[in-house]
Design goal:
Nucleotidyltransferase, domain 5; 5-stranded mixed sheet; alpha/beta; 51% helix; 11% strand; 10 helices; 323 residues; 5 strands; 3 domains
């Protein structure tokens, strides 16, 4: 096979290295183009009648000229005279598509499923990009980043590194996102493999509603009222908003606990129940399963009353969290 390929390269007067370089360049271009779709969707939602020319000067995309930008926007359906499709994703060569792993999945514990999305914040006529990763079960925002660039190394990678360093999830965690290029780039996929995280993607926005809600809350409930004046303030205020969201904002779906409180209650109940069951097994081992004072008897109420109570809340919560 190698001999045949070498003969082919020689026949068309081109080197194998040149072909490889061309493929790498093409893949890089595909990633950049795909990453633009996310921000274009956001702009179209807020500015339904903005022209492609205005969108170009608003975004100032890296490595793509004005005419090429407008051509791509027309291909993707963002041109005004064409029907706008908010769920479009590029089908460029080399794009990786991961299956939707949470379509019929119920999150049952913290760090079972994380969801992520990228949004933009406009300040001083410039776009900044906010990336959030939150826990599907407890709603805790686990990681985030603020960037002036839409590139993967400034958006999803720092957010994921922050979340993983702080929470150290077990292998098998699912990370669910949209089809943006920042979630399938070589760098990001390499990081999820290193952390033993399973990649999951949706095809349409409604399949990632929690991540969309987090974007809206941080922007519309906090930042829009605080009005950061520069990049340093934006970074500090996003950090503050995440803290308030996690620590002080009650959620109806969490029985009006804050995300942090709910996650801690889960851990408390799980630890207490585990300790109670361990004591039960020790008693059975000591007295024997035939002992009338132990066999078949539950652990004392003083041992697990709080654990049982929270377990019921957790079970109720589990049945309500579905995608």
């Amino acid at each position: 096979m190698t001999y045949s390929l070498n003969r082919f390269y020689k026949a068309i007067n081109i080197s194998k290295q040149a072909v490889s370089k061309h493929l790498l360049v093409a893949r890089g271009a595909a990633d950049i183009k795909a990453q633009l779709v996310l921000i274009l969707q956001e702009i179209r939602k807020d500015h339904p009648t903005m022209s492609l020319r205005s969108m170009y000067y608003k975004i100032k995309p890296e490595k793509i000229g004005r005419d090429k930008f407008e051509h791509l926007c027309s291909e993707w359906g963002f041109k005004l005279e064409r029907r706008i499709n908010y769920c479009i994703t590029t089908d460029s060569s080399g794009v990786i598509r991961f299956p939707n792993l949470i379509e019929s999945l119920t999150a049952k514990r913290p760090n079972h499923v994380w969801v992520s999305d990228i949004t933009y914040y406009e300040m001083n006529r410039r776009f900044y990009y906010l990336t959030f990763i939150s826990d599907m079960y407890t709603k805790v925002i686990k990681g985030f980043s603020v960037s002036r660039s839409l590139r993967t190394i400034f958006t999803t990678i720092p957010a994921l590194k922050l979340a993983h360093k702080k929470y150290r999830p077990a292998a098998g965690l699912i990370l669910h996102s949209d089809g943006g290029g920042q979630y399938y780039s070589n760098e990001f996929v390499g990081l999820t493999r290193q952390f033993q995280i399973k990649n999951s993607m949706c095809k349409e926005a409604y399949q990632n509603p929690q991540a969309e809600r987090v974007n809206g809350v941080i922007k519309n409930n906090y930042l829009i009222h605080w009005k950061p004046a520069n990049e340093n303030q934006l970074v500090k205020l996003v950090d503050r908003a995440v803290y308030l969201f996690n620590m002080e904002k009650p959620h109806k779906s969490l029985q009006y606990s804050t995300p942090f409180e709910f996650e801690n209650k889960f851990s408390f109940a799980k630890d207490n129940l585990s300790k109670a069951m361990s004591r039960q097994r020790q008693k059975l081992a000591t007295f024997g399963a035939s002992s009338p004072s132990v066999a078949g008897q539950p652990v004392s109420g003083s041992d697990v009353s709080s654990a049982n109570k929270m377990s019921k809340v957790i079970e109720k919560r589990s049945t309500n969290i579905r995608h």
